[in-house]
Design brief:
Blueprint (H helix, E strand, L loop, with lengths): L1 H13 L5 E8 L13 E4 L5 E3 L5 E5 L6 E5 L6 E4 L5 E6 L17 E3 L6 E6 H5 L17 E4 L7 E5 L2 E2 L3 E5 L2 E2 L18 E8 L13 E7 L8 E8 L3 E11 L4 E12 L15 E15 L4 E17 L5 H4 L7 E18 L7 E17 L2 E20 L1 E22 L6 E18 L4 E12 L3 E12 L5 E12 L16 E4 L12 E16 L2 E16 L1 E4 L5 E6 L4 E15 L2 E16 L2 E4 L6 E10 L8 E11 L23 E11 L4 E8 L34 E10 L1
Parallel strand pairs: 1-7, 13-16, 30-34
Antiparallel strand pairs: 1-4, 2-3, 2-5, 5-6, 8-9, 9-15, 10-11, 11-12, 13-14, 15-16, 17-18, 17-42, 18-19, 19-20, 20-21, 21-22, 22-23, 23-24, 24-25, 25-26, 26-27, 27-28, 28-29, 29-31, 31-32, 32-35, 33-34, 35-36, 36-37, 36-38, 38-39, 39-40, 40-41, 41-42
């Protein structure tokens, strides 16, 4: 029968050998039996030309001489890429995967990648891209990315905040391996608690995220994949030092305990003990800091029985001191001797993931995610004290399967979240203690249809019951349509809902003399009602060849329309007011991005962004403060050809231009403390050079803000920090000026 099969195949392709390839995709087995895989995806790489195998695992596919890479994928199996040089019969066995991660084989590893086939507007940032900026933590990982905006949160903490689609990080679902991680008490500083060297890749999705990960996503989702003990270097060391006094050391120690168990110990430490006051305002330009961050990670893989699991233990101790140069916490804490601030954070995390793929039915899988965290922050800002303890529990069970074939995939499951907040404030006009417990139970269902050629649709819905927010429904939809080759037209919409943590998300307000007022009292969280928003978006991706080299253009437009929002109102320079929206609030984002491989190993990226972000304040409809309408981005990277033992040079340059931004009103302040209506436009230039000496050792040298742009007088009334006009929140640009750094990386496989 086996020989008869070959004869039949040969006859079937004889008439089409010049135009088609045919074959059979099978499940790998020790006996090499012909066990066909029905519903396997077979398509030409970087095209939308593809098909799905029939009930016997057979397929027929159009062939052109320019098609050279045939990609074969199937749920529960490793994705393979075959080199095809002529029309022929393809007879291929797929190997069962030993992990739950999708594997894509390409000819050259790209620093960033976009998909032409997925329904969501998602792109992946690899570890190679992260190394371009020698990033030290997750908040600094987006400096070379055009879709994420990075700027300082205030003039004293040195904390960088991110924005997507014109909205701040509370409106972005930030996950670690698809487990919500930066939320609640960690919202202000949590991005700085994930070292950059721990990150394997980052997936950024614009628009409402998947219903599988929760109901809070409004502007998008940022998911961080951590390095895996089984595949990471046995030993990795990164040492970093900068002229602003920052010293860092990262160490990875990985070992294989047995055939199925691997473990890794990841150590991160950073410190800054040098005081800088370049602008002479008597305040530190950057805080003094010490951080110890430890993670122990375990990985279990059993491909024969279909199990893969991860278990993480994390501990963090972070201390920041900022304020006036002469501030001494031992003698000046909570006094008027000198203005100062300390922020002490201790955080414990335990997380586990268990995945099971049925060896007999590989398109069926079950995943369970659990995480517990305890976050405790003790802090004061001048005479104001703010402490928060946040204990969180998260659990999610996900079942994956297909309907008839892999064109029709489903995900369904249930989730549970528990959050207990205990906040203490020593602030005028507010109660001293705010305690609350939030818990929710939710169920979700997600359907994905993908015919590979034209349509990919992901539709999801979830229902949650929350003890404070009630019972509500969250729908999400993402659609991809391919009108012609190397193109992807996408549309999406979705609803998000969240309770605003007004104190921890706006800690910069404590470093001012503003009175803090909550104007509502009937809501369930701080007297406020939950935030609700709809996000709508369209995107178009077109790939093409320019002078024989690959290029692509992406255009997208997103609208976030708030049905209710907790308005943070800074329009009175003596107050910060919180209240629920009465009127319109929206964020409109337009972006056009151009990527081009100019020649071998030389890539350029450029982008223009336009934001229209407005909110109805008590004084009227106004543009969101400190949000530029216009932004320009450009990045160029070049690598020399690898020589013996991977020796090469790497060069990277990033340019950012920010248009003018609106200051919140200062018209009622004394004339000496009034600011103009808008900021000046600013531009910054970053660059890095890396010398790779071998596969095991490299050094790097770089500079941030090389053009030495500095915001003059970033602190209002710095000469009178305990007076009525003191304010550190009016920050639109760099404070320290140019900053240079150097470091080395050592790895042993």
């Amino acid at each position: 029968m086996k020989y008869l099969y070959y004869i039949l195949i040969l006859f079937s392709v004889s008439g089409f050998s010049q135009e088609k390839i045919t074959g059979m995709i099978m499940e790998a087995n020790t006996e090499n039996k012909h066990i066909g895989l029905a519903g396997a995806n077979v398509y030409w790489l970087n095209t939308t030309v593809g098909t799905v195998t029939d009930i016997d695992g057979k397929f027929s596919l159009e062939y052109k001489k320019e098609y050279t890479k045939l990609l074969i994928s199937y749920v529960g199996f490793k994705t393979d890429t075959l080199t095809i040089t002529e029309p022929k019969m393809v007879h291929h066995w797929l190997q069962p995967t030993d992990n739950l991660n999708e594997v894509t084989v390409t000819t050259r590893k790209l620093a960033t990648s976009k998909s032409y086939l997925k329904a969501g507007n998602t792109f992946t940032v690899s570890s190679d891209e992260l190394l371009k900026a020698a990033c030290c933590n997750l908040s600094e990982s987006f400096e070379t990315n055009p879709s994420i905006d990075v700027n300082f949160a205030d003039a004293i903490s040195g904390t960088k905040q991110i924005k997507m689609l014109g909205l701040t990080s509370p409106y972005i679902l930030i996950t670690t391996e698809n487990i919500p991680s930066i939320r609640g008490a960690s919202q202000a500083f949590g991005l700085s608690f994930i070292p950059g060297t721990w990150v394997e890749s980052i997936q950024i999705t614009k628009g409402a995220g998947s219903v599988v990960n929760g109901y809070e996503s409004i502007a998008g989702q940022i998911n961080t994949e951590l390095v895996k003990p089984a595949t990471d270097d046995k030993l990795f060391i990164n040492a970093y030092g900068s002229v602003n006094g920052r010293l860092e050391l990262n160490t990875h120690l990985n070992s294989k305990v047995s055939d199925k168990w691997s473990t890794g110990l990841y150590l991160h430490g950073n410190m800054r003990d040098t005081k800088f006051d370049k602008n002479g305002d008597s305040f530190l330009d950057m805080p003094l800091q010490n951080q110890i961050n430890v993670m122990n990670r375990w990985q279990y893989t059993n491909p024969e029985k279909g199990f893969v699991s991860f278990f993480n233990l994390k501990y963090l101790n972070d201390h920041k001191q900022t304020g006036q140069v002469n501030f001494n916490p031992k003698t000046d804490k909570l006094t008027t001797n000198a203005w100062g601030s300390e922020i002490d954070t201790k955080r414990y995390e335990v997380a586990g993931k268990l995945g099971y793929v049925n060896p007999e039915i590989p398109w069926q899988s079950l995943g369970v995610q659990t995480a517990f965290s305890s976050h405790k922050q003790d802090s004061y800002f001048g005479l104001r004290q703010y402490d928060i303890t946040h204990n969180s529990l998260y659990a999610n069970a996900i079942y994956n399967s297909i309907i008839s074939d892999s064109r029709h995939k489903i995900k369904t499951g249930i989730s549970y979240t528990y959050d207990h907040y205990d906040e203490f404030l020593d602030v005028e006009n507010l109660d001293s203690n705010y305690k609350r417990t939030e818990n929710s139970v939710g169920a979700f269902f997600e359907y994905n249809y993908d015919n590979l050629e034209k349509i990919n649709l992901t539709a999801g819905i979830r229902v949650d019951h929350h003890n404070l927010l009630g019972t509500f429904v969250t729908p999400r939809l993402h659609v991809r349509y391919t009108p012609w080759e190397k193109s992807a037209l996408r549309a999406s919409f979705g609803r998000g809902k969240r309770s605003a943590n007004i104190f921890t998300e706006n800690q910069n307000m404590f470093a001012s003399s503003r009175s803090i007022n909550i104007l509502n009292s009937n809501g369930t969280v701080y007297g406020l009602d939950p935030e609700i928003a709809w996000n709508y978006g369209v995107s178009f991706l077109q790939g093409f060849n320019l002078f024989g080299k690959k290029a692509d253009v992406t255009i997208d437009y997103y609208i976030t329309d708030f049905k209710n929002q907790v308005v943070v109102d800074f329009e009175n320079p003596q107050e910060v007011n919180f209240y629920n929206l009465d009127g319109k609030s929206y964020a409109r984002s337009f972006q056009i991005e151009f990527n081009y491989n100019v020649f071998e190993r030389f890539d350029v990226r450029s982008a223009y962004k336009f934001y229209d972000v407005q909110t109805r304040y008590n004084v009227g409809q106004l543009e969101k403060p400190l949000t530029p309408k216009h932004r320009l981005f450009a990045n160029a990277s070049y690598e020399t050809e690898k020589r013996d033992n991977d020796k090469q040079w790497k060069f990277d340059v990033t340019y950012n231009w920010l248009g003018d931004q609106r200051f919140s009103s200062t018209t009622s302040s004394p004339i000496m403390y009034q600011l103009p209506e808008r900021t000046p436009a600013i531009s910054t230039l970053n660059a890095q050079i890396t010398k790779v000496f071998s596969k095991s050792f490299e050094v790097y040298l770089g500079g941030e803000n090389i053009t030495n742009v500095k915001q003059p007088n970033p602190i209002i009334a710095a000469n009178d920090p305990f007076g009525a006009n003191f304010d550190t929140t009016f920050v639109y640009g760099p404070i320290f000026g140019s900053m240079y750094y150097a470091g080395l990386r050592l790895k042993i496989n």
